Amino acid sequence: MNSRENKPGEAAPAASPRHRPERAHPVTLRDVAEAAGVSTATVSLVVNKKKDARIAEETRQRVKDAIRALGYRPNAMAKTLVSGTSRFIGLVADGVATTPFAGQIIHGAQDEAWKHGYALLIANTEGNRELEQDAISMMLEYKVRGILYSTWFHRETDIPASLREADFVLVNCFAAEPGARAVVPDEVQGGKSATEILLRHGHRRIAFINATIPAPAKDGRLLGYRQALEEAGIAFDPGLVMEAYPDQEGGYGATGELLKRSATAVYCYNDRMAMGLYDGLREHGLSIPEDLAVVGFDNQEVIAAHLRPPLSTVALPHYELGAAGVRMLLGLEETAGAEAAKIHCPTVERNSVRVAARAKT
Asked: What domain of life (predicted)?
């Protein structure tokens, strides 16, 4: 085998055309018509499923056989021009694909879209308004069936003007204006469920470390905590509620103050905060759950499932948010009226909670 090295600065020789794979000739409507022995108009009527067209069943079958044999694919864009809509659903996100829950909203939306014969067009804008505008415009040009507009954390949002040109559903966010359909996590139910894990194990003096950052999750999870205590006949004690920045350092820094509250259990705003609390408790020579039971929120798998002991928590339903958004867009689920549809946050119980000492028999 002969080889030739290029001299410095010399361009590599172009690949020989005979070594390039040949592109297959796309099968046309005319090819199918010739194979079936009919006109292109007849093939078009069969392809577009015009059942009222006067075509003999034997002829329809002959066209279908030719389509299968030749591997003919209808021109989707041409069908879009005729019908005024396409089999695409758009999803515009400000960072869903890069969050710790990477892709779960996208995954749920994609699975649900496929189930109903649609494909997902995805644009991750990282919060860039110009890029967002371009993405929505492109989706409108493709005549998408509708657009899911999603944010990476649950919050109120402004609806982009161009989004109003399409049928749309807000996912993991909401808008104050009437008629804006949305699906969001049920933060109140999630906070209540987190507290109930501890109540079921006999704990009565339960602390809550909330976030310092204003958000629907902050208010909702506190309300759920209070509801769970009230239903258990336990008076709300403001002294058992603390605030910290919602990350590992925030949870770690709250440890000393928490230990002054004489709680037997604590529910943390999120799993990252709980991870920091684990470190703080360990430095104080305390064990989980023997000395203090701990519950988190989010079910961030890379954290919650791998702490020692594994963390009991409440999951954010990102997959179901995406799926529910598609169902709402397609009219398969009724809207919740003026309010956003709330998606249940399931509990995930692991080994960070045990029966409280006073509740043992």
From this structure: Bacteria
Enumerate residues 6+ apart whose C-beta is below 8 A from 123: 90, 91, 92, 93, 131, 132, 135, 136, 138, 139
At residue 97 the predicted structure's pLDDT band, cuts being 50, 70 and 90, is: low
pLDDT, mean over the chain? 88
pLDDT digits (tens, 9 = 90+) for 139-162: 998 889 999 999 988 999 999 999
Residue with tokens 């867009």: 329
The answer to whether the beta carbons of residues 87 and 121 sit under 8 Å apart is: no
Closest CA to 88 of 116, 120, 135: 120
Whether the CB-CB separation of 209 and 277 falls below 8 Å is answered with yes
CB 222 within 8 A of CB 191: yes
10 Å Cβ neighbour count for 157?
17
Please name which of 296, 247, 295, 299 lies closest in space to residue 272, comparing C-alpha atoms: 247
**What amino acid is encoded at 326 in this protein?**
V
Distance CA 91, CA 147 (A): 6
**Strand, coil or helix: what is 225?**
helix
Domains, the chain: 27-74 (1.10.260.40), 83-184+319-343 (3.40.50.2300), 187-317+346-359 (3.40.50.2300)
Q: What is the pTM of this model?
A: 0.79
Cis before 74? omega within 30: no
pLDDT at 22: 57
Q: What is the pLDDT of residues 119-130, one digit of tens each?
A: 999 998 888 899
pLDDT tens digit string along 15-26? 444 555 555 677
* 60 vs 48: CA distance, rounded Å: 12
